[in-house]
Amino acid sequence: MIELLKVESSKKRWELNKEYIEILGSPIDGFWENVVIGTALCYQIKHDKKMVGHFFVDEDKTLVQFYVSREYYNNAPEIFNNIIKSNKVKKAAVPTKEVDYLTLCLDSQKSLEVDMYLFEDNQNMNHKFNTFSSSTFRLANKGDIDSIRLKCDDAYDGYYENLIENDNLFVLYDGNSLLGIGEFRIIRSNEKYGDIGVVVAEEYRRRGIGTYIIKKLKEHCYSKGLKPMACCDIENLASKSTLEKAGFIANHRVLNVQFK
After folding, report:
1. How high is the pLDDT of residue 132?
2. 248/246 Cα distance (integer angstroms)
3. How confident is the model at residue 122 (pLDDT cuts 50, 70, 90)?
4. What's residue 209's pLDDT?
5. Alpha-carbon span 80 to 243, nearest angstrom
6. pLDDT digits (tens, 9 = 90+) for 17-44
7. Quick one: three-class SS letters along 170-239?
8. What is the pTM of this model?
9. Is 124 within 8 Å of 219 (Cβ atoms)?
10. What dihedral do alpha carbons 66, 67, 68, 69 form, nearest 10°?
């Protein structure tokens, strides 16, 4: 008999996710952890009166994490099929890092497509950019917010304020002109990794500024003993090129899998 028990405790949700990431050896990505897993519903799996694993599913009934312990892995296909046949799940998003989960998805898929690139740094590059020798790269402060909202993404209220409060946002200026911003977060489930991202002001794009900011963020990660990682959507070829020029490799993907 299979029972699916909703986990309401944020602490328990966090513990289940962290334990699973430790088994994988490296985290998926900061966006995946904070947004995808962070906002999904969590269920523990009970099989024949024993707790054997857990899964996360988002509000669109997309399965985003699935785990059954090795001790009970022979039961995993049965449990997985039970879940995807339930009213809780219609499809899955699965990173290729999660081999067991990916294998089960492949066994049951009707169709699949690549959704995101997942990057890890391949080399600690330390090039100098004479083009930006007069620019200033520094931690952002509250006085930068108006310029950021004008020149870069108009995120939800409080987003940039939260990043600034936690020393997670950097700005690049040429004089008084904001060229772009860089985000940095330590990945909570594995604090050996730093998640980074960049937004360049539209009028300054295609000048190498994004690559420069990424390399500065990499330096910041390494100065803290962290390995940098990043992601981008499959359609965002400009971001992919920027990250690759900065020394990253897209060694994993996130797949969208349809079951029904």
Report:
1. 66
2. 6
3. confident
4. 92
5. 35
6. 999 999 998 899 988 998 899 999 999 9
7. EEEEECCEEEEEEEEEECCCCCCEEEEEEEECHHHCCCCHHHHHHHHHHHHHHHCCCEEEEEEECCCHHH
8. 0.88
9. no
10. 180
The tokens describing 133, both together, are 């020798």
Average pLDDT, the chain: 91
Instruction: Record the tokens describing residue 66, joined without a space.
Output: 């699935």
Q: For residue 76, what pLDDT is reported?
A: 96
The whole-angstrom separation of Cα 138 and Cα 117 is 28
Helix (H) or strand (E) holding 133: none
Q: In the structure, what pLDDT confidence band is assigned to residue 124 with cuts at 50, 70 and 90?
A: low
The answer to whether 108 and 92 have CB atoms below 8 angstroms apart is no
Token pair listed for 210 = 């994004």
Q: Are the C-beta atoms of residues 94 and 101 closer than 8 Å to each other?
A: yes
Q: Which amino acid is at 207?
A: R
Report residue 52: phi and psi, to 5°.
-115, -10
Distance (Å, rounded) from C-alpha 249 to C-alpha 28?
14
**All domains in the chain, ordered by first residue:** 2-108 (3.40.630.80), 120-253 (3.40.630.30)
Residues 6+ apart with CB under 8 A from 126: 219
Which tokens sit at 50? Answer: 């024993």
Q: Give the whole-angstrom CA distance, residue 250 versus residue 232.
A: 10
Q: Phi/psi at 253 (nearest 5 deg)?
A: -130, 160
Of the CA atoms within 13 Å of residue 34, those in its CB half-sphere come to 10
Sequence letter at residue 45: I
Is the model's pLDDT at 260 over the cut of 80? no
